[in-house]
Amino acid sequence: MEKSTIALVAHDHKKSELLEWVNTHIEIMKRCNIVATGTTGGMIADNTGLAVTRYQSGPLGGDQQIGALIAEGNLDALFFFWDPLNPAPHDPDVKALLRLCSVWNVPVACTPATADLMVTSPRFLSAEHVPHKPTY
């Protein structure tokens, strides 16, 4: 069975929270192909030993690189711990990334609570779960 590809992204004030969440679910993470934006990906790889494909930092194009994976049908889920209290200069990129998840029916979690529910679902990583991909 081919591994699911998931993206891990976090704003600066949420990086430690994402790392803690990844460590809590490390056995599930080991069963995934992980992609991430630059700094977040480095932090996760360095602190967990997980293999992480790193893209550019979000503001330098990493959000768009992950968006391209979504548009091409090559991303199964996005875990994006964004910081609602500290607006970033690349907020339009963030909104575009979240919009693409809605357009292409890709599950997205923006909080640890939602992420917990996603990865503990019996359908997460199940070969029997084939999400509907819209046709436009």
TrEMBL record:
InterPro entries: Methylgl_synth, Methylglyoxal_synth_AS, MGS-like_dom, MGS-like_dom_sf. This is Methylglyoxal synthase. It catalyses: dihydroxyacetone phosphate = methylglyoxal + phosphate. Residues 1-136 form the MGS-like domain. One of its GO terms (molecular function) is methylglyoxal synthase activity. The keyword Lyase applies. Belongs to the methylglyoxal synthase family. The active site is at D63. Its EC number is 4.2.3.3. Catalyzes the formation of methylglyoxal from dihydroxyacetone phosphate. Keywords: Lyase. SUPFAM superfamilies: Methylglyoxal synthase-like (SSF52335). The keyword Lyase applies. It comes from Alteromonas salexigens. Substrate binds at H11, K15, T37, G38, T39, T40, S57, G58, H90.
